[in-house]
Amino acid sequence: MSRAGIYLDNAASTPVDPRVIEVMADALARHGANPTAAHEPGRQAAEALAQAREPVAAAIGAQPADLVWTSGASEANNLAIQGVAAAFARQPGHMITLCTEHPAVLGPMAALEAQGWAITRLPVDADGFCDPAALAAALRPDTRLVSVMQVNNETGVCQDLAVIGEALRDHPAALHVDAAQGAGKLPLDVDAIGADLVSLSAHKLHGPKGVGALFVRRRPAPHLAAVWHGGGQERGLRPGTPAIHQILGMGKTYELAAAYAPAESRRIGELRDRLWQQLAAVGDLVRNGGPDRVAPGLLSVSVGGVHADALHYACTAGEPPLAVSRGSACAAGSAESSYVLRAMGRDPALAAASLRLSLGRFTSGADVDTAGRVITAHIERLRALADAVAV
Fold first, then answer.
1. Where in this chain does the record put each Aminotransferase class V domain (predicted)?
2. How confident is the model over 311-321, as pLDDT tens digits?
3. Any idea which residues carry the catalytic annotation?
4. Which residues pair with 2 in a beta bridge?
C-alpha cells in the first residue's frame, strides 16, 4: 500500500524493479556509443546488448540470436503478423486467431482482412478456452499463420499451446504466440510447443516500458519479411539504433524473473486466491475463466446488482483508492463492455460490471486484505442504493 493507494493493475503495467532502474541508469552513463560502430565504445555497447539477450531467450528456451528487439509486445505482434503477410504479398491466404486475443493481434489481422486476407476468429467456451480440435478443423491449405496468446490479458486464461502446436506439426502454417502476460512468469518452451514466433514484453514483468522482443525461429525459419526498411539491424527485420538502456533493462528484468520463479508465482497465486475468497463472500459474483487454468496474478470478476460506472468509480476514487481496471488497458477508453467477456457468454451488463484485479511482485498480503474489505464494502453499499431506488 502506498500514498496513492493499492496498486492492483499489474496486467496493464508493473512498477519497475529498482534493480532494473539501476542497470538502466548505468547503461545511460556508460554506453553512449552506437553498438554498430567499429570502435571500442561501440564494441562494448554491442557486447552489453549480446549479454542482455541471454536471460530473455532463456525464459522461453530459445537461443539469444533468435531474438529481435522491438519497442514492446504490440510492435512484436505487428511484426509477426504483418511480416508473414509481407512474405506472402503476392498470394494472400488465410490466418487463424481467437476472438479473445489482444487488440495488437486483432487489429493487424483486421487490416489484412481489408486487404484480401481470409481471417478466422475462433470462439471460446464459457471458461475462455479454445477447442484445439476446432482450430485443427479450421486449418486450410493456404493457412499461413495461427496466432494464439499464452495468457489472456483480461481473464488470465492460459490456452493449451502444446496441443495447438501438435495440431500444426504437419502443417506449414507458422505458430505465433503473444506471451506478453506469461513469459518470465510461467513456463514456456518454444521447441516443446513448436512456436515459430513469440512476442515478449518487459513492462508486464517489472521492467521498463518501450522495449520488447520477437522470437523468430532461425531453423526452420518461418516465412517472414521485413515491414520496415532502412537499416540492417536485428537481422534486417527491425532497423534503427537499439535503445541500449531499455534493452539492458529488459535483460535484467528477465534475469530477476528467473531468480524469483516459481516461488513468486506461487506466492502471487496464493494471494490471488485469498482475494477471491474474500470477494466471493459478498455473493452474486462470477469468476471469469476456469480457475485451474488461469495465470496466478490475474483475477477477473463480474459483479451482479451494481452499476458498472459506479463500481469502478467507487474503487478508484474511494479511500483508499484502488488502482484496478475493468479489463484490457488498451480498451479502457471504450464505452462498450469487454469483448472478451462477451465472447465467453457474459451478459453485456454483467460484463461491463467487471473488475480485473492483477497482482505483482510488490503486492503484499496487507494490500490484498485491505482491497478485499474495501471492494466488498463498495459492492454492498451500491447494491443497497440500487435496492432503495427500486422501492
1. 6-369
2. 999 999 999 99
3. 330
4. 5
